[in-house]
Amino acid sequence: MTKSITKKLSLVAAAFALAVTTLLVPIASVGAVSGNNAVQDGINSAQGDGVPTTLFGDGSIFTTIVNILLFIIGAICVIMLIWGGIRYTTSAGNAASVTAAKNTIMYAIIGLIIAFLAFAIVNWVLVSVGQAA
User: Could you give the CA distance from residue 39 to residue 99 in angstroms, rounded to a whole number?
Assistant: First the structure.
């Protein structure tokens, strides 16, 4: 019985604290800032130098993110290709190790091909979207 009373009291205390906080917090008005484009001026001043402002097209945010991710994927594929080659040369004729190394090399090549195709497709789509916009 005391647990239900404690729960009810904590709920009432939380509601009271929320009500008091709501009444005491001052409300700031965006219109109180001088100038017609005060919000846009704030956004522009918060933006760093050389930061892309467009979503699609040359040098856009989406293009930059996709190119970085595809570069990382390609680098991982190359590293795995090298790792598979090292595993293959150090397998010492063990059939299981040779098979695992060959699979690593094969999957790394497949991943590299997919990364190149994804790069080509994404850039083709971005160029098409950029021309349409």
Answer: 61
E strands, 29-132, where? none
Confirm if 104 and 84 have CB atoms less than 8 A apart.
yes
pLDDT tens-digit readout, 81-130: 999 999 999 988 889 999 999 999 999 999 889 888 888 887 787 777 76
Spatial separation of the C-alpha atoms in residues 116 and 123, rounded to whole Å: 11
Closest CA to 66 of 127, 132, 131: 127
Q: State pTM to two decimals.
A: 0.52
Where helices occur in the chain by DSSP H, the ranges are 2-24, 38-46, 61-89, 95-132
Tokens of 38: 């005060």
Q: Which of helix, strand or coil describes residue 58?
A: coil
> Shortest CA distance to 84 belongs to which of 118, 117, 110?
110
